Amino acid sequence: MSGGDGIGRLDWISRPAGPLHGTLAVPGDKSVSHRALMLAALAEGDSRIHGFLEGEDTRATAAVLAQLGVSIEAPAPGERLVRGVGLHGLRGSERPLDCGNAGTGMRLLTGLLAGQAFDSTLVGDESLSRRPMRRVTEPLVRMGARIDTQDGLPPLHVHGGQRLHGIRYELPVASAQVKSALLLAGLYAEGETEILEPHPTRDYTERMLAAFGWPIEFAPGRARLSGGHALRASEVQVPADFSSAAFFLVAASVVPGSDLRLRAVGLNPRRTGLLQALRLMGADIEVLDERHSGGEPVADLRVRYAPLHGIELPQALVPDMIDEFPALFVAAAAAHGRTAIRGAAELRVKESDRIATMAAGLRTLGIRVEEAPDGAAITGGTLGQGTVDAHGDHRVAMSFAIAGLVARGGVRIEDCRNVATSFPGFMELANGCGFALKAI
Fold it and tell me: What are the tens digits of pLDDT across the range 139-148?
């Protein structure tokens, strides 16, 4: 279905709704799905991935790996059978490798491809082509890689046949994607690669490397490995994506009378900053049935409506919730008082400038927002009706769908097509628990 005035354009209308109820299973974790594909491809033997996210981003990564000679089968929705080719078994492609909208895919693949014997060119869609890549390419060049960019932007041409060497690298800005790209390059490097972070970030890559049998030492803010080992095929259970659960955590927190349960959500401690932030704001969220799945901590989350109040967001939480800020902006808009966010400059270079995009949309709905280079101050109030532009940013679109639940009238959200990149089936799941959301 399309609406608006562009080819393939999709707009939504989200209207005020009653209490949200039900037990939901949100899709598998996107970050884990990307990494599971890549490590399974480089492993020796056949790996099976359960709970795989059937999104456009992860399918783009699978298509790139298939183009490089890896057999990937889909025996059922949410499952992948990856026939690993070993560390040196990938084959070059003369055609560009299209990452679509997947920033995670492009950054991690750049590290993986830096150690290959063949040249590769990584391209992406219009949004991804505007995202900066120097934070990945510059340390890779220090490791011996040769990578051509368009003034720091994609397309990226990764030269093959380079001799990589391990480095000790202190990340200037905490980023799990940059860390992961360097660790993947480190698999092919001579000597030891050690990454130090100013703040700890999610450790999916480290945990998964260990699960695939690669010797690695890691602790919060630090990871170290050496080249010259092998990856062994593994069975991977992908937990439900906390970033996808985040929209329902906020929605149930702000819609009076709501009571939702979210099943088997991944609770990697480097991903759950929003959970802590919402609790600081007064949210009623219970963590139930804690367990481990595929090396990752998971639990059910029960969230019930509770009046929220503004907070000064602790900057220590920022790296652990960078993808959840659009949803937090809506929670802040529905809260009583002022919420101040600082230290989140990375939001300026996501799928959209998320600070500017969220601020503009919330102002349209009557909320006071003061922007800063690295954040914003949001004064909560009553949201009105209006039309906002998601600028093709999936997380912005889903966040304004929450805003429509508590607005005085319908909120029209323009340019929502990219929601399928991270959360296929969002509308059906949302309407199933009480949203009033439709495509136009």
Answer: 999 999 999 9
pLDDT, tens digit, 9 for 90 and up, residues 62-92: 999 999 999 999 999 999 999 999 999 999 9
Yes or no: say if 322 and 346 are a contact pair by the CB < 8 Å rule: yes
Q: Specify whether 5 is catalytic.
A: no
- List the catalytic residue out of 11, 125, 203, 323: 323
Cβ neighbors of 139 (< 8 A, separation 6 or more) are 167, 169, 178, 182
